[in-house]
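Field reference: "sequence" (input) and "structure" (output). Example, Heat-inducible transcription repressor HrcA:
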Amino acid sequence: MSDARQLLEEMNDRSREVFRRVVEGYLLTGAPVGSRSLTRELSEKVSAATVRNVMQDLEYMGLLDSPHVSAGRVPTQTGLRMFVDGLLEVGDLQTADRALMDSTMSSNSDDVAGVLDRIGQTLSGVTQGASLVLAPKHEAPIKHIEFVNLGPDRALVVLVFADGHVENRIFTPPPGQTPSSMREAANFLNSLVEGRTLSDVSTVITQQISERRQEIDTLAHAMVESGLAVWAKEGEGPDRLIVRGRSHLLNAGADEVDLERIRTLFDDLERKRDIANFLELADEGEGVRIFIGSENKLFSLSGSSLVVSPYMNADRKIVGAVGVIGPTRLNYGRIVPIVDYTAQLVGKLIADRS
């Protein structure tokens, strides 16, 4: 059991209700919640002084914070995490939201990128946040792999797929690599990967390296791991990551500090910093995941929240992800089912077109 869940179970009914109402009030308005307003809403009739004492205890526990002297309370990141894990009530997908997302799939176009772009735009409009759609990586079987030395600290791996598609990925090779070690690594890989997709390769490579470690030297071993560990190269084209609706974040009534954080978020997105990690966040299992503030390395500096879900191809392999970014006071209960449903739609699209 997580520390947050254990702490929630140890709280008495009054503390739990005060905490829940503070968080719900903050998520609804974005403003601190005071003891007087809470006193009128609690199921148990208690004085404002009693409520203040409870709020002080919750603040001492690290669940609430006072943004200003004599002001109400807002949840901390820890408090939001505990609310999401233990008290969040996820509603059903609203009929209007479902209809809007379904409308993106009405086109018979074979342009998957265009459909994904429409899905991103619609998801942004429905949630009033910024949407992210990580397009699927190429899933055709690999025909050939080659390493090309570009300098002391740069190399190129060329991936030739059975359908004629070619991808070039620049990476940093291990120190001391030689042309012979690069050829050896390529020969080793080519003996294993033909007919397999990138989704299959990682597991196979790990197993084979363990079983045949003596057949390749240390440098070749490192080349193999370095060359295939990265799914996406730095600065990959914009069709890989589709970002829509960033203006919604600017229209969310943010103050000057929040605007600076949003600018930081935009800078991260434009530079595609750690975008490869975006898929990894969702790659640990099915279902929607929620990352609040610094829990997500990609958006830690901006203090944003990310609601993300992976989608799968026809073989039930995770090939991409969709998500919504917004301030920490997102309406999680409404957005979670929207993101979940959108991931299902994208998965069906990819499966049907494959």
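The first strand starts at residue 64 and ends at 65.
The domain at 95-137+237-353 is CATH 3.30.450.40 (Beta-Lactamase).
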